[in-house]
């Protein structure tokens, strides 16, 4: 930048160059900093989906909160679901600050969710019919989430990186909570082991889908590539999925559980896991709101938001007095 | 007093009291946990959940005292008793509203605020008395629990006062909720059939003394927010301290024990 | 007026002290209709695990910060005359008088020796 010249006097191109220089130098972008519109939109898209997925993600596990099979488990899963809501809070705040210049706030995020415009993560559209699912979600779904979130700990957008730092710290508790549940079942009665295996079977394809398709050609969008350019994220979907396999497959096998994919193996030559890919057309169906629990969970959230509108209206009016 | 110096009659009364304390917190914590993900505001969802966890933790402390007194394992006590063995007040087992937490929950936030606030006021008074309980393990538990109770009281008091003094709609809903809670809140304020033995052994203050403290406090708060005091709270549906309960408790206990009951021996 | 424009979703910045002796630090923000609500929510949204000695909530619109342009005013040249590194030559001076130069500890402790 020209010495003595105000930033506001720079041309758009110069601002863009300055912005990319900052990103490439590892500097963090803050909410009030100049940013290209495209960067803002990418962040809003990514972070509002991440945030709302945490909120929707509370719902499948919440089914098991009152039913958790001991006082200790009840407390632990309540704390875990609470954390999910808390993560949603942190992330939505980040997204809301990015949206503020566009004249939008949390209410718009909720409306976008209800209208289907804002999608949430594929895993939270699925059924969780047994306590084994509570275990598999906490162990493997959260395990997958930790992998994709920790990749973004060094995100170029400062508020996102800071929120993720706090989230990841809490995810360590979630992972152990999940391990504790699944180990108790794996070491329990034959019925308990069977319940656990059933849950793994039920969740495996969703876990493959968790990281998204290998490349843009499966879904026809290239947001992942763009986010790498902006240093919002650093790895591809497939990098993350391979990392997940390396981390968890040996553990799953060590417990004597079976992965419902008889082709899965580690290929020494390519140093990659070979596996049966997910059905990506099914994925598209699920995230568009046609998963087994999509509408039911949306109804829970919509209903609670609408039923309690009077509460927010009351306090909004109170403030104005 | 300690476990060793309790006379049989005192022990019986103490066990009754502990079931009241434990079951009150346990049931209201359960009703609170059903709200998870459904509160009027995300930030409030998180705050409310902490309170539900705290209360379930308090119930756990009391169940552990019962375990020491020979009532069986805490988890077994919490999960495997039949509804008529529960000693909680009826108003605390009542559902949050139409629907269930899994399907079409049309929960009533005004009812939740009123019930929790009235309970928090009473719990504070009760703990204040229990801190000086003649049964030392109970006094110690009460002192621990009291540290978390300040926040609960502050939280619900702010909610109660703000909603009572906001829009006409909120005032209407809150007033209806007060009337609803009032019909059965008397059940929280009673010590039940073993009342005389409980008080004689100095486990806790006389229920009439505590009732008066509660009435005074609530009357003052109602006056502050411009509402009228509806007279002594009642016990229209019976006394939960006697094991009298509603269908709502049956539904609650079957949900709470659904998984545990399939395999209590091995554990989960 | 709908919920996009009403006064429920106000941004509050949350600050906290870890212990009595620590300074206040910023820790995230939340949406609340007023300061009392912001306080009771802040406690469990941000301090449900770690201990905390005090909490402040401040409505964001009451904070005057700097924009990217204004942050230019934070830059400056070296000013050795008001920093200790500008006074390194004193050590040698005192040695000429057979005296050790006071360290920071000496100066702040008000004592002329290390014993």
From TrEMBL, chain A:
Signal peptide residue numbers: none
UniProt cross-references to Gene3D superfamilies, sorted A to Z: 1.20.1260.10
Domain of life: Bacteria
Entry-linked InterPro entries: Aromatic_CoA_ox/epox, Ferritin-like, Ferritin-like_SF, PaaA, PaaA_PaaC
Listed EC numbers: 1.14.13.149
GO-annotated molecular function: phenylacetyl-CoA 1,2-epoxidase activity
Pfam families: PaaA_PaaC (PF05138)
Keywords recorded for this protein, A-Z: Oxidoreductase
Protein name: 1,2-phenylacetyl-CoA epoxidase subunit A
UniProt source species: Fictibacillus nanhaiensis
Protein encoded by which gene: paaA
Automatic annotation (TrEMBL), chain B:
Membrane-spanning residues: none
Protein name: Phenylacetate-CoA oxygenase subunit PaaC
InterPro entries reported for this sequence: Aromatic_CoA_ox/epox, Ferritin-like, Ferritin-like_SF, PaaA_PaaC, PaaC
PANTHER family reported in the protein's UniProt record: 1,2-PHENYLACETYL-COA EPOXIDASE, SUBUNIT C (PTHR30458:SF0), PHENYLACETIC ACID DEGRADATION PROTEIN PAA (PTHR30458)
Gene behind the chain: paaC
Signal peptide feature range: none
Domain of life where this protein originates: Bacteria
TrEMBL record, chain C:
InterPro entries per the UniProt record, alphabetical: PaaB, PaaB_sf
Taxonomic superkingdom: Bacteria
NCBIfam families named among the record's database cross-references: PA_CoA_Oxy2
Official protein name in the record: 1,2-phenylacetyl-CoA epoxidase subunit B
Protein's organism: Fictibacillus norfolkensis
Primary gene name: paaH
């Amino acid at each position: 930048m020209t010495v003595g010249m105000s930033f506001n006097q720079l041309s758009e191109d110069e601002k863009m160059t300055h912005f990319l220089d900052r990103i490439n130098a590892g500097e963090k972008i803050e909410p009030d900093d100049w940013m290209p519109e495209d960067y803002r939109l990418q962040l809003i898209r990514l972070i509002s989906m991440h945030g709302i997925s945490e909120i929707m993600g509370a719902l499948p596990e919440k089914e098991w909160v009152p039913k958790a099979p001991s006082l200790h488990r009840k407390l632990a899963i309540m704390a875990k679901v609470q954390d999910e809501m808390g993560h949603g809070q942190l992330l939505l705040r980040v997204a809301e600050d990015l949206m503020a210049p566009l004249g939008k706030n949390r209410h718009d995020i909720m409306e976008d969710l209800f209208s289907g415009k804002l999608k949430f993560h594929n895993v939270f559209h699925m059924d969780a019919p047994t306590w084994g699912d509570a275990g598999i979600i906490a162990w493997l779904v959260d395990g997958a989430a930790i992998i994709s979130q920790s990749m973004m700990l060094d995100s170029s957008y400062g508020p996102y990186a800071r929120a993720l730092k706090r989230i990841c710290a809490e995810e360590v508790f979630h992972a152990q909570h999940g391990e504790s549940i699944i180990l108790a079942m794996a070491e329990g009665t034959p019925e308990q082991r069977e319940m656990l295996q059933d849950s793994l079977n039920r969740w495996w394809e969703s876990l493959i889908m968790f990281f998204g398709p290998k490349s843009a050609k499966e879904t026809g969008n290239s947001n992942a590539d763009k986010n790498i350019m902006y240093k919002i994220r650093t790895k591809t979907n497939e990098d993350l999925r391979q990392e997940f396999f390396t981390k968890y497959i040996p553990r799953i096998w060590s417990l004597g559980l079976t992965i419902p994919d008889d082709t899965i193996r580690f290929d020494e030559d390519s140093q990659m896991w070979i596996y049966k890919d997910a059905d990506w057309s099914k994925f598209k169906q699920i995230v568009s709101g046609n998963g087994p629990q999509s509408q039911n969970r949306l109804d829970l959230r919509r209903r609670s938001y609408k039923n309690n509108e009077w509460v927010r209206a009351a306090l909004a009016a109170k403030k104005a007095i | 007093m300690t476990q060793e110096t309790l006379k049989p009659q005192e022990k019986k009364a103490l066990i009754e009291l502990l079931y009241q304390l434990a079951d009150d917190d346990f049931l209201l914590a359960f009703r609170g946990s059903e709200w998870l993900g459904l509160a009027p505001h995300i930030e409030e969802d998180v705050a409310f959940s902490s309170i539900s966890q705290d209360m379930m933790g308090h119930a756990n402390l009391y169940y552990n005292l019962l375990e020491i007194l020979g009532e069986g394992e805490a988890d077994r006590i919490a999960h495997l008793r039949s509804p008529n063995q529960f000693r909680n007040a009826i108003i605390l087992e009542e559902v949050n509203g139409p629907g269930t937490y899994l399907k079409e929950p049309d929960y009533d936030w005004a009812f939740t605020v009123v019930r929790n606030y009235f309970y928090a006021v009473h719990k504070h008074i009760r703990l204040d008395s229990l801190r000086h309980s003649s049964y030392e393990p109970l006094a110690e538990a009460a002192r621990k629990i009291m540290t978390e109770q300040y926040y609960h009281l502050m939280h619900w008091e702010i909610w109660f006062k703000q909603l009572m003094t906001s829009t006409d709609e909120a005032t209407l809903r809150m007033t209806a909720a007060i009337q609803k809670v009032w019909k059965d809140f008397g059940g929280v304020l009673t010590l039940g059939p073993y009342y005389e033995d409980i008080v004689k052994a100095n486990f806790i203050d006389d229920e009439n003394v505590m009732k008066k403290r509660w009435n005074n406090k609530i009357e003052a708060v109602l006056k502050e927010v411009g509402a009228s005091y509806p007279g002594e709270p009642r016990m229209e549906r019976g006394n939960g301290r006697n094991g009298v309960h509603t269908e709502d408790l049956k539904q609650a206990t079957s949900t709470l024990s659904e998984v545990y009951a399939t395999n209590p021996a091995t554990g989960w | 007026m709908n919920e996009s424009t009403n006064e429920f979703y106000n941004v509050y910045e949350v600050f906290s002290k870890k212990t009595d002796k620590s300074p206040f630090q910023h820790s995230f923000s939340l949406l609340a209709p007023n300061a009392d609500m912001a306080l009771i929510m802040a406690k469990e949204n941000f301090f449900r695990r770690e201990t905390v000695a005090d909490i402040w909530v401040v409505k964001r619109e009451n904070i005057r910060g700097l924009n990217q342009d204004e942050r230019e005013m934070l830059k400056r040249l070296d000013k050795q005359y008001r920093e200790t590194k500008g006074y390194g030559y004193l050590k040698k001076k005192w040695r000429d008088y057979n005296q050790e130069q006071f360290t920071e500890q000496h100066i702040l402790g008000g004592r002329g020796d290390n014993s």
